[in-house]
Specification:
431 residues, mainly alpha, Ammonium transporter fold, two-stranded antiparallel sheet
Length: 431
Amino acid sequence: MTFKNNYKSLITGLFFVPQLACAEGINQANTVWVLTSTALVLFMTIPGLSLFYAGLVRSKNVLSVLMQCFAITCLVSILWLAGAYSFVFSNGGDLQKIIGGISKMFVAGMDTQSMTGDIPETVFFMFQMTFAIITPALIVGAFAERMKFSAMLWFSALWLLVVYVPICHWMWGGGWLADLGAMDFAGGIVIHVNAGIAALVAALVLGNRKGFPNTAMPPHNMTMVVTGAGMLWVGWYGFNAGSTLTADGHAGMTMLVTHIGAAVGSLTWMTIEWQRFGKPSVLGIVTGMVAGLGTITPASGFVGPFGALVIGITAGVVCFYATQYVKRTLKIDDSLDVFPVHGVGGITGSLLTGVFAASNLGGMGLKDGVSIWQQIGVQALAIIVTIIWSALFSYLILKMLDAWLGLRVTADEEVQGLDTVLHEETGYLDL
C-alpha cells in the first residue's frame, strides 16, 4: 500500500514539474492586480457606462442604450479572440511597425504557461480586451436615440478592426508611434481621442435628432446617471493603475493622480457652471469627473500629483467650454457629449503629458535628451495622425453602411422611441 501511494505521488510530481517550474516566473502579486483591474475595466462598460448613458437619454430609449453597450461587449470579445488581439500584439514581421501578424489568431499557441512579462498572457489578453470593449461603446453616446441596431453592430465591428486595431498597435503593440516616443499610458490617444473623433463624425453623418436644438431633451433619470458615473470613477482605477501591469509604487502613484484628476475636474466644472448659471448641477459635477478622468488618462503613469492637479483643472475648463461650443454654437448633436468630453479631453491630456512628465515638474521624467517642446511635438503628431485616421475611416464606414443598410431609423420611429421600435420592450411599465 505504501509503495502504491509513493508511486502515485512520484507520477503526479513528474506530471506537474514543468508547470511548477514555469510558474516560478509568474509574479503572483502583479497577476492578481491585473486580474482585479480587468474586472474593474469591464465594470466601467457594464454596468458603469451603460447606466451613465442610459440615464442621460429619454425614457423611451433607455433600453436601446443598455442593449447597445451589452451587445458591443459580446461582439468585441469575439472579434478580439478571432484576430484583433493578434493584429495588435503579435509580431507582424516586415510590417511590424504598421500592423501585427496572424500568429495569435484565436489565441493560437496560448496556454496557461504563456507569459507577457511576468503575468500570464491570458490575463494580459483579457485586460486589453476590456479596453477594446469600452472604446466603441463610448461612441454610442454620439448617435444615441437615432441609429439602427443592425447598423450599430456593423459599425462597431468594422470600426474596431479598421480604426482601433491599427492605432492601438502603433502605440502599444510595437508600432511606429511608440518608436517615435509618443506617450499614452492608458489610452488618451488610443481610446479617448480615437473614440471622440469617431463620435463627432458619426454625429455629423447621422444628423441631429428630431427637434434638436430647439426641443429640450434632458436626462430622464439622473439617479441612474450618478450611479453609472460612480461606477466609472471606481472602474477607472483599473483602467489607469492597472496599465502599470505591476502591483507596486508605480501603480499606487498612477491611482493617486487618477483620483486627483477626477476630483479637481469635477469641482472645476461645477464652479464654472455655478458662476455662469447660478446653480451647480449634478449633471455638471459628474460630467466634470468624466472629463477629468479622460484627460488624466494618457498622463496617469507619467506625472505626479502637481501635474494631475493642473491637468484636472484644465480638463474642467476646456471640456466645459468645448461642450458649450459644440452644442450651442456649432449646433452639432453629439447626443451625450462624447467629442467635447472624451475627444477634447484626450487631446488636452495627451499634450499636457509632454509637459508634466518632466522630472522638474514632478513627473517620472522624459527620455534622455528630449526636451518638453520636443515631446509636445511628438504628442501632437500622434494626435494628428489619430484624428486623420479615425475621421477618414469612420466616415467611410458610416457612408458604406448607410448605402447598404441605412444608418438611421425613420422620423416616426424616432418619435416612438428605439426601445419599442427596435426591441419591442420598454424600460418602464407606464410607457
